[in-house]
Structure formats: structure tokens, C-alpha cells
Amino acid sequence: MVPTMRELSGWSLGTLTATYDERDVMLYALAVQAHATELELVYERDLRVLSTFALPLGLWAVEIVDRLGAYDPGQALHVSQGLTVLAPLPTRGNIEMSGAVTNVWDKGSSALVEVTATSALFVAIYLLFVPGVGGFGGERGPSSAGSVSEREPTWTTTVVTTTDQAALYRLTGDRHVLHIDPDKARAAGFERPILHGLCTLGAVVLELARVTGRDATSLVSLDARFTAPVLPGAKISISAWSGESTEFVASVEGLGTVLSGSAVFS
Description:
Number of strands: 10
């Protein structure tokens, strides 16, 4: 049965057990620009897992929603990402997750679809913007978050992505054609294949941990909003503000803000 947009809210996506090992953990770290000198991220001897590694693990739930037929997945945009870490991820093992569509909001001409992947170790929330499927009489939902602090940033730093980064990151599990196929990317209106939003996010959070002096594996919560796609090879400028959480804005020259949000490290 193909659900309507109204019926999609609350839809169970079943369960999935993700199996991974140290190789997957190290590959992910390298794909989000861990340095060879950060041995705890790239060397099995004393390996620890970046908290954002949970995000590609939970992406299966979004892929199932895309296949339900309620909307055209080619039109859906990943616009927001949440993560709550309940316990450190092991360097290898089997993680059982359940998935559900936890909310569908009617924005008039469009809809927002909230997909949640839950495990004993983390809760990951993916928000999708889907044009052309609104007007079904659902709740409008929350408004967009306000702007970050108007104070001067506490820290500024940069991430220089590589031209090969999307090709590397897709090996962590997200093999969408827009990240590798030039013809498909041009047909979608992009100059060339774009970087995965979760790759940009992982790289920004890792650099944020470095510049603030935090342990990159100690992230306990994350809330981020994607506002523009990044091309591999782009230089990303990051401003961050201290507080109960670390607020951040990432921008690319000529594009403006591409990513913003807040992170909490333990």
C-alpha cells in the first residue's frame, strides 16, 4: 500500500541491524578529513569512533521512506539533521535500529518529513523537504530556528574539502548518483557532483572539535541545518560561539551559509 502524505506520519519502517568493523570506522574518519596524526581515529591500536559515524548508519530509514511512494525521492532535500548520542559507539559490532516517520508537516505547497532512526546507542533525526506535496490539511509544524549569536565569534577556522572527497565518502554507504555521476548532477542543476551533506557536517564537526579543544569522539548532541550544497574542493569557513552549546555557521564564498547549527560535547 502506498501511503498518502497524511498517512505517512507515524509510519513504522521496521528494524535493521547494522554490522561494521574497524575498517568502516577508519574509512568514515578519513572521509570526513581525519588526519593521519589523529591515531585514535585512523589506527586500530587505540581506535575510537566519531559520534557522527552514527549518521550514515541510520540513513537506511530515509531510504525506506523514499521507496514507499508517497513522494518523488528525486525531489526530496535533506535540510536538517539531529543526533543524540546515548552511549559511545563500539569500534565493531552489530547495532539494531528501529525506524519511523515521526512527523509530517504541511507547509502549504510543500511538506517536511521527519524520519527517526533509534538504537540503544543513539537517536538520529533526518528532516526532508519535499516540494509539491503539501496542502493535505496537516499541521504546519515549527518555524525555522532563529539566527545565531550576533556577537563576534569565539573561534574561526576553515575546512578545505578535496576534489575526491565525495567519491571517498560514498563508500561509507550513501551512493546517491548526484555525488558521483557528472551527467546526473548536471541534469539536477549542479555544475558537477556535489558533496554529501552528511560529509560536510562530519568534517565541520570534526574541525569544530579541534578548534575548541574538545574530543571529537565526545559529541553528545547535534542539531544542524543544511542551506546549500557544497562542491568537492570548496573551502568552508567556520565561525563558532561558546555557550552551553557551541553554535556554528559554515559558509562558502559565493554561496553564503551552507550549514549552521549547534553541538554539545561532553
